[in-house]
Specification:
It is a single chain. By secondary structure, this protein is of the alpha/beta class. It has one domain: Rossmann fold, CATH 3.40.50. About 35% of the residues lie in helices and about 20% in strands. Strand 1, helix 1 and strand 2 form a beta-alpha-beta unit. Helix 1 packs parallel to helix 2 and helix 1 crosses helix 6. About 40% of the residues are buried.
Amino acid sequence: MKHIAVLFSGQGTNFAYLAEHLPTHNVRIVAALTDNPDAGGIAVANTHGIALEIVDKRAFARREDFDAEVVRRLEAYAPDLVVLAGFMRILTPVFTDRICAVNLHPSLLPRHKGLHAIERSFEDEHNEGGVSVHWVTSELDGGEIIVQRRVPKAGHTLESYRNEVRRIEKEALLEGVLRALEALPKGCSAAREA
């Protein structure tokens, strides 16, 4: 059985999807961590009996200090993989050099890295957008892509496009996590020493 940890900042809808579907793939979420003490995803952890760590981002003046505390907490659970599922932090090498992780991003990378990706994708000149699951590196949304799912924009309003992106991202994240777990020796050989 493989073990993962999930990081989230908001409602935890993707976290909930993983918690419901990963057990059938012989994958266990051993811990969840949030940077937001008011995150709705805390209830997801409690509902599923998953160990929860809260590292309040406001308690740290420097991103590196926050990342060091996150790494310390995660290493106690020794996950095979860490999954960023709506974790709204830009991570420093303090994290990326120690932790093997994948991230879900709501655009077809390399287009529209960073914030407001859905809106920027909807407004660009391309006839489709989508979601990407990629390896986490010290470059923002710059790691190797594991999975992409596409959404045609024709006939969509911004709201309906956003809803479609949110719908497909759950399936893409599940597929990306499973693929990443299969590729761990290749993808993470230098990133995780524990």
